Amino acid sequence: RSTFQAAKDFNADWLVVDNYWARDSYLETLSEGPWRVAVIDDLNDREMFGVSLVVNATVGSGEWDYPIGSDCRLLAGPQYALLRSTFSQRRQEALLQRQAEQEFRKVLICIGGAHSAEITEAIIAQATGKLKDAQIRAVVGRGHQLANTDHLPANVLFLSGQTEAQMADLMAWADLAIATPSTVAWELACMVTPTIIVRTEDNQTAFAKSLSQKYPLCLVCEEIAALSLQLRRTQSEDAGYRRKRNERWASLCDGLGAERVAAEMMKKAK
To answer: DSSP letter string over 75-142?
Structure first.
């Protein structure tokens, strides 16, 4: 009721919902207002009748059987990933930078804010075990419970709450990134940063499986325990194959998804 009233007071044209707990009846009630409803989704686990727009950046989501009305538009695939403009603005520079052959001397680990200290430490441990000579930057969100960093190797720097500009700098700096299946993965693709995707939560399963099935050249680990083996394989790759794989990865997202979604909303606004 409070959301409905706030949208009414604001005289909204659109109401955008990005919440796993906004279930069928919630969305149906919101759609009764004098506005259109857009849902940002990646699970397809609820009915969305009455919704006007669904945005799902997951690879292959355009083939999912979505329970939506005939007048609802589905914007599916990483070309609709909602990234901040900093990353698309830096993309051309990144494309030129990656033309030179690089070894994995600088590694960026991107860990979401909701992950436990144990998950953070497990990923860092596997990375340092296989990349002993690399400089490693481990970035977590502001809401992350920081692990005890006293026992970390000297080559690991722990960073928290980086701005988007700082994240873009880190992605450009890195020869390799290790990230969870989330928006940050598409930021890394936009920045042409070679990336290993590691699934750490159940709600990331669809993202990880779709990526590995549709784009087998991409590096995906279904569990943290597989990261060590993936790092060893990646280090031993032929340079030509590595370049081809990263070109395919970078082609998935150009960072202009927010503009595409906004253009669709402008067309449909009442």
So the answer is: EESGGG----HHHHHHHHHHHHHTTS---S-EEEEEE-TTS-HHHHHHHHHHHHHH-TTSEEEEEE-T
